[in-house]
Specification:
binds FE3-S4 cluster, binds iron/sulfur cluster, binds S-adenosylmethionine, five-stranded mixed beta barrel, alpha/beta, 13 helices, six-stranded parallel sheet, single chain, 463 residues
């Protein structure tokens, strides 16, 4: 994969346009993100480019002169969210001269979506995809020059563009892409079609980014990829994900390393050993299993059996005592029977997840599963979903209860509306505690006094 660097110098463009709009203030931009952490990271880059062009970044979409929707299409409800928002924006845009609207992200990689927007939402100004976000400044410039709708979608990534700016949400933690795309083609999933083929960033680029973040005060990094355990395939140096973890752990200033997502078929003994041996690697693994039935897993093309998954989680628990395992689970995949579903419940009970995202299967046009027979009726899938959720929540609650009385090392992340601090423990538990706002970004010890299903309450320990 070709590597490219990008320099954004749109200063002249910005000064010209502000003068032309005659607002007498900075232009404001709002980036609205749907979907997963890959999209959230792309949005940070978009905000960084906008800031480099002179825009003020705002979270208040009502105040924005430019709104970008970074979209998701993993399930149908994600797509509906965009159309709902677009409908509402029509009147606001008509009443506000010079307001701009751009759409990007995974949804835009589908021809049918772009056709629909061009036909029914003509007030959208710019449409681009997942492979060319680095071109956004040029697209905005072209739109400002021509005034017409600009559509630029690439079918695949031509290069990895490095050194793009970013606006991060937290000063002390950051997400870092280590790879893009996915080659797994799980039969239900649209991601490989809209994010392209898997490609890993060069080790030196990843480490340089993390060193720069650490120099800027970041102590916690989240390494991102659709399947981080296959990092390094296609790189000349052949560095594996486990080796990358060792290199990241060597970066001075980094205290905590997290990563997501891990595909069960690719979790190697080396990665388990790195989690065991490297203190900086957090004791949390997000390990989506999707379904418990081996027959369904085969139809999903997941590449592991129910027994493989349970064996893997047993191995992880033995190697990394106290590890929190979280997961993604889907119900209603085509052909799923009651017996198959009971296998899913069985995995939930045996692994005892610290948390799980549960999804109703959503048919995605263009995927192999969309053409499968025996689509499960909606009422049947919903009934199973409710039973699954009850089981998952009860187990999550029990796992949380086990933390009562423990003293956890917590990084304080923010202050809630009630003035209570919140933070994350090494095993990714959300912890609430009373403390001074100045502790945000710092590591503190918190004694857990109460456990709820989705968070823990505790008291600050004197150091
Ligand atoms: N790459 C990750 C992996 O394989 O573990 C998953 C990334 S995907 C964006 C996040 C989750 O969305 C998946 O784990 C799956 O449970 C869910 N998902 C993907 N396609 C779906 C579909 N068609 N219907 C319902 N849920 C889906
Ligand atoms: Fe989708 Fe499977 Fe790739 Fe995950 S590994 S992004 S579920 S195709
Ligand atoms: Fe959605 Fe794209 Fe992520 S489809 S889940 S935003 S990779």
């Amino acid at each position: 994969m070709e590597r490219n660097s990008c320099e954004i110098d749109m200063t002249n463009f910005y000064i010209e346009k502000v003068a032309a709009f005659g607002l007498g203030r900075d232009l404001r931009a709002c980036v609205i993100t749907h979907g997963c952490q890959m999209n959230a990271r792309d949005s940070e880059t978009l905000a960084g480019m906008l800031e480099a062009m002179g825009y003020e970044i705002t979270k208040d979409e009502m105040a924005a002169d430019l709104i970008i929707f970074n979209t998701c299409c993993v399930r149908e409800n994600a797509e509906n969210k965009l159309y709902g928002n677009l409908g509402k924006l029509k009147a606001r845009k008509a009443g506000r001269k010079n307001m701009k609207l751009a759409l990007c992200g995974c949804m835009m990689q589908q021809d049918a979506v772009v056709d629909k927007i061009m036909a029914s939402y003509a007030y959208v100004d710019i449409i681009f995809g997942t492979h060319n976000i680095a071109r956004f400044p040029q697209l905005l410039h072209s739109h400002m020059e021509s005034g017409g709708m600009i559509v630029d979608i690439w079918q695949d990534a031509k290069e990895i563009v490095e050194d793009l700016p970013a606006v991060r949400e937290f000063p002390f933690k950051a997400s870092v892409n280590i790879m893009y795309g996915c080659d797994n083609f799980c039969t239900f999933c649209i991601v490989p079609y809209v994010r392209g083929r898997e490609r890993s960033r060069e080790v030196a680029d990843v480490i340089a980014e993390i060193e720069a973040l650490a120099a800027d005060g970041v102590t916690e990094v989240m390494l991102l990829g659709q399947n981080v355990n296959s990092y390094g395939h296609g790189l000349a140096c052949g560095t594996s994900f486990a080796q990358l973890l060792h290199k990241v752990a060597g970066v001075k200033g980094v205290r905590r390393i997290r990563f997501t997502s891990s595909h069960p078929k690719d979790v190697s003994d080396d990665v388990i050993a790195a989690m065991r041996d490297l203190d900086k690697v957090c004791k949390h693994l997000h390990l989506p299993f999707q379904a418990g039935s081996t027959r369904v897993l085969k139809a999903m093309s997941r590449g592991y059996t129910k027994e493989d998954y349970i064996e893997l989680t047993d191995k992880l628990k033995a190697a990394v005592p106290g590890i929190a395992i979280t997961t993604d689970i889907m119900v209603g995949f085509p052909g799923e029977t009651e017996e198959d579903f009971l296998d899913t419940l069985d995995v939930v009970r045996r692994v005892r997840f610290a948390g799980a995202f549960t999804f109703l299967y959503s048919k995605r046009q263009g995927t192999a599963a969309a053409g499968m027979e025996n689509q499960v009726p909606e009422e049947v899938a919903k009934e199973r979903f409710n039973r699954l959720l009850a089981e998952v929540n009860e187990i999550t609650r029990q796992v949380a209860q086990e933390k009562r009385g423990m003293v956890l090392e917590v990084v304080a992340e923010g202050v809630g509306k009630n003035g209570i601090l919140n933070g994350r423990s090494d095993d990714n538990s959300l912890v609430h505690f009373v403390g001074d706002e100045e502790l945000v970004g710092q590591v503190v010890n918190v004694k857990i006094t109460e456990a709820r299903t989705f968070y823990l309450n505790g008291e600050l320990e004197e150091i």
